[in-house]
Design a protein that fits this description.
Layout: H1 6-9, E1 14-19, H2 28-41, E2 45-50, E3 86-90, H3 91-96, E4 109-112, H4 114-121, E5 126-129
Parallel strand pairs: 1-2, 1-5, 2-3, 3-4
Length: about 130
């Protein structure tokens, strides 16, 4: 009998990173982005989710220098180089804040209603909440 390579036998974990905090209110947004880039550099299937005040992280034309903070939001376009293409945003959270999907800093954001957002989130094996 031929031994089976355990690594080949393991199902690849799908990682979800949920962002629910406004940018620059804490380090949560930057920490979540850093974590996504780390997983992406190791070719892990990684998805980013934005709900609540986290939707503000994807809104274009924010100036962090006004509050003397580093602008990590400029790093979002680099996600495509790490093959992080699954970026989901909660339509309800967007509507609650009077925002539209034409204001995003990146193009490949998928806006989902509450039910679809939850379903997609629960398809992942691992969840990091920020």
């Amino acid at each position: 009998m031929t031994p089976v390579n355990e690594v080949d036998n393991q199902e690849q974990k799908m990682v979800a990173i949920l962002n629910s905090k406004a940018p620059f209110s804490s380090t949560n947004g930057k920490d979540a982005l850093d974590l996504a880039l780390i997983f992406g550099s190791y070719e892990q299937v990684t998805s980013l989710f934005f709900q609540g005040d986290g939707v503000w992280q994807l809104i274009d034309n924010q100036d962090a220098t006004l509050i003397q903070s580093k602008d990590y939001l400029k790093t979002f376009p680099a996600l495509e180089f790490y093959d992080i293409d699954n970026i989901y945003l909660c339509q309800h959270s967007l509507n609650e804040r009077g925002l539209t999907d034409s204001q995003f800093t990146i193009d490949n954001v998928i806006v989902l209603n509450k039910l679809k957002f939850s379903e997609r989130l629960h398809q992942h094996n691992v969840l990091f909440r920020f």
